[in-house]
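Q: What would this chain look like folded?
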Amino acid sequence: MDADSVFLDIQDFGKGPIVVFTHGWAHNRNAWDGVIDRLGKEIRSISWSLRGHGDSEAPPPGQYTRDHTMSDLARVIPDTGQKVVLAGHSLGGYLSLAHCLKHPEQVKGLVLIAAGPGFRKEETREQWNTSVTEGAKKMDIPEGSEAAALHTDSWVIDSLGEITVPTLVIVGERDKRFAASMAVFEKYLNVTSSIVVPDAGHSVHSKNPEPVAEAIRNFLSEIEHGQ
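A: My prediction, written as structure tokens:
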């Protein structure tokens, strides 16, 4: 199977400023439904399921690396010449950062929800990767698809200073693991707003869509008006 011919389940809804929504590992594009419904038809919301997730095709093991998922994200972004906002949850946020580093000319803003930039220390990366690998054994997911959530280098976290676009950061109050990333983003990125959703956990976008949608709507307004 050609890695670039993998079928991707994509939903394209509304018209206006383009926001591309990328979900986290072991989720699918439906995790964004509540947010997209609340944003309404005035925003062009494009959500998709990563390969091996949801109704997207599941290729054989070995085709779930960062390069594969980044290639997929590049295919999802419409070729209109219009810059887009990349919104990502968890792994989706990491991929959004990676795409912004690789194709800064395509991105006018980032929305990072319960996301992290990876790890500088090899030991910490190994601990993370072990937790992902062990967790995958207990999940009903395609063989090898856990590789999408593994970290092999520190490229993204080491390159955060190169990203200059306005950034919105959202975390749930109870999401302690990813709350720590907020300080990292505020140090290195052009964070225009940081939102902590009270009494929310890691899946803050799907379980608390109203405040997340409101924050995104306000962020888009700020970008559009150059504030």
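Helices lie at 33-39, 66-76, 91-102, 122-136, 155-158, 176-188, 204-207, 209-224.
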